[in-house]
Structures are given as C-alpha cells and as structure tokens.
C-alpha cells in the first residue's frame, strides 16, 4: 500500500506553539527532514500546512518527497466521523493525501462537532460544572473499517495505530482487511517495550517511538522530574564520549539501531540537525545492552495517570 519508505527520523509536532510552528516546519524541511508527525489534537495543523507550503513554494522539496503522518482523535471513532475527520486534517494541512493516518488512542469518546470545538481535546463539555471525559462505546473494529475506507478513497496511503498493546494488536491483525502499516508508541531507555516492539515487527509493522528522549518532553507539563533525564546516565555519557556525539544522539541512535523510527521534537536548528545526524556512527553490542538495561517501565504519557489528574476521569489503557 505504501508508495515510499518512511524516513527513520521525523519531526514530532506535539507542543509546538501555533506562532512558532510554520517556521519550525520550514526550518526542519530546509535542514533535511522529510518526515513530519502531526495530529488533530496538537492544534497546529494549519500552521504545519503553512510551513509545508512555504517549503514547497521555495523549491526545498516536492509533496512527493515528504512523509506526512496525522492521527484520528478519540471523539471521531464512529464510522461516520472518521473520513470527515481526515478530510478536516487534510484541509488544515493543505494536502490532498496523507502518507499515514493513525488511530491516536484506543479510546472512543463522545463525538464533538467541528464547529462546537476543534480540536475537541479530552472533556466532553469543558464548561460543565464538573467536566469529565465521556466514552462512546464504539468498538475499535468499527473504527478500523472506516480507516480502511479512507485508504480506498485515496485520502491516505497507509493506516496504523498508536498506543496499542500486544493484545489489541493481536485482535487488530485478526480482523483487518488492510493491515496496519505502523505502530506508534512511547519508547526510550526507561521504557524499552521490547516484547511489544518484537510482536509488532513480527507482524511486519513499522514501529515509531515517540518521546524517544524520555523525560525531556514532559518537564514543562510537570509529568516528569529533571532527575529523570536519561541523558545524565553514565552509560549514555560514556558512549557519547567514545563516539564524539551528544548524549541525545546516543539515545536516539539506540532506538534507530533497534529498528524503530523516531520523532523527536525540536524547533532549534542546531538540535534539528543533530537529531538527523545518526547514521554515521554505531553503538556496539555492549552499549546497546547497557542502555536497554536502564529500563524501569517508566511511562511518562499514561492516560491512566493524566486523565484522572487533568480530566477528572480514570482511564487506564495499560496494565
């Protein structure tokens, strides 16, 4: 189904402010990024589209050079809402098709019309006296069938899932007519997810690791502490010293060397360049093993934690 290979390093667009986003996308394309990871829920797809358009207009790339991913939000899981949600994303991005469309979470929430609130975020009604999340009871198989229809309609080249566990993946493989192209999950040295990655790769899926640097993505949200930075670990620093690379490059290389693609976020040009420069060095077997041994199953992005804290609703999806 795919028309090209997904680049191993992409730019993650979560938490890039609207006022900075178009320039950040333009800069990323200018320094060599060809993979952009977007989502309805990030609230910046119009600005992403502006950055893409400026880069194409200036001759930095063509649409065919780019791999653009976006994601279906939880409120659009019902069959009749999936295609309109994708069409809204395409309109905002200024594109005719995506390379990959993902189910963002295996959580089906009550529909919120576009003109009521977009992106709808997590609350069913943020103005309620006691706002909460509301679940819609739509089975994932219904959502997947509608995702398949978007491929048949030519709106996306590939479809996949985020934040699925092995059980959901097994179930998906049993009923899907169009097989998932990719699984996107949180993974870094504190959350290696080895069994899930192995299972997904056995099924032939590409695996993309989000938050590949771990705590760095979550400090500003108070979802991680400064002491949790994997970049301070002795094994990471030692490998960086041997290779003449930064600790961040070592951690990113570890994930790529495991066969994953990665989508680190940065809007600083120097950091963007460093995050791309992962293919002229290799970690040795001992370094790979030592970095993997840092695993503590520390998940920073867990609806079982943040939904209760921020949205007054207990919503675990991982055991």
Please characterize this protein's 3D structure.
The protein is an alpha/beta fold and 319 residues long. It has a single domain (11-311), classed as NADP-dependent oxidoreductase domain (TIM Barrel, Alpha-Beta Barrel). The protein contains eleven helices and eight strands. The chain has helices at residues 18-31, 45-57, 79-93, 140-152, 166-175, 194-202, 234-243, 247-257, 269-276, 285-292, 303-311; strands at 11-12, 35-37, 67-72, 100-103, 159-162, 182-186, 206-210, 261-262. Helix 1 runs parallel beside helix 2 (45-57), helix 2 crosses helix 3 (79-93) and helix 7 crosses helix 8 (247-257). The mean pLDDT is 96.
Question: What is the structure about, briefly put?
Answer:
By secondary structure, the chain is an alpha/beta fold. It is 38% helix and 10% strand.
Structural class designation: alpha/beta
Largest sheet: spatial strand order? 1-2-3-4-5-6-7-8
Rg measurement, Å: 19 Å
The secondary-structure element order is: EHEHEHEHEHEHEHHEHHH
CATH architecture: Alpha-Beta Barrel
Indicate the CATH class.
Alpha Beta
N-to-C CA distance: 33 Å
Task: Summarize the SSE layout with pairings.
Elements: E1 11-12, H1 18-31, E2 35-37, H2 45-57, E3 67-72, H3 79-93, E4 100-103, H4 140-152, E5 159-162, H5 166-175, E6 182-186, H6 194-202, E7 206-210, H7 234-243, H8 247-257, E8 261-262, H9 269-276, H10 285-292, H11 303-311
Parallel strand pairs: 1-2, 2-3, 3-4, 4-5, 5-6, 6-7, 7-8
Helix pairs in contact: 1-2, 2-3, 3-4, 7-8
């Amino acid at each position: 189904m795919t028309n090209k290979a997904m680049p191993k390093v992409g730019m993650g667009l979560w938490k890039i402010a609207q006022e900075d986003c178009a320039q950040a996308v333009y800069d990323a394309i200018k320094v060599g990024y060809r993979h952009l990871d977007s989502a309805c829920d990030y609230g910046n797809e119009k600005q992403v589209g502006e950055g893409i358009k400026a880069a194409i207009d200036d001759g930095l790339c063509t649409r065919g050079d780019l791999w653009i991913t976006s994601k279906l939000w939880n409120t659009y899981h019902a069959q009749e809402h999936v295609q309109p949600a994708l069409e809204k994303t395409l309109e905002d991005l200024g594109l005719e098709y995506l390379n990959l469309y993902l189910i963002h979470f295996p959580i089906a929430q009550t529909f919120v019309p576009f003109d009521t609130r977009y992106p709808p975020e997590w609350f069913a009604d943020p103005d309620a006296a006691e706002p909460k999340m509301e679940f819609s009871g739509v089975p994932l198989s219904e959502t997947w069938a509608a995702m398949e229809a978007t491929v048949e309609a030519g709106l996306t080249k590939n479809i996949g899932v985020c934040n699925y566990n092995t059980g959901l993946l097994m179930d998906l493989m049993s009923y899907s007519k169009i097989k998932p192209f990719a699984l996107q999950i949180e993974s870094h040295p504190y959350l290696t997810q080895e069994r899930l990655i192995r299972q997904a790769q056995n099924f032939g899926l590409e695996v993309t690791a989000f938050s590949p640097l771990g705590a760095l993505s979550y400090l500003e949200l108070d979802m991680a502490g400064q002491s949790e930075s994997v970049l301070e670990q002795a094994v990471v620093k030692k490998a960086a010293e041997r290779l003449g690379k930064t600790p961040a490059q070592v951690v990113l290389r570890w994930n790529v060397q495991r066969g994953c693609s990665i989508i680190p976020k940065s809007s600083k040009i120097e950091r963007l360049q460093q995050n791309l420069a992962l293919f002229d060095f290799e970690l040795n077997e001992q370094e790979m093993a030592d970095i993997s041994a840092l695993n503590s199953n520390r998940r920073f992005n867990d609806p079982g934690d943040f939904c209760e804290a921020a949205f007054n609703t207990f919503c675990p999806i991982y055991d």
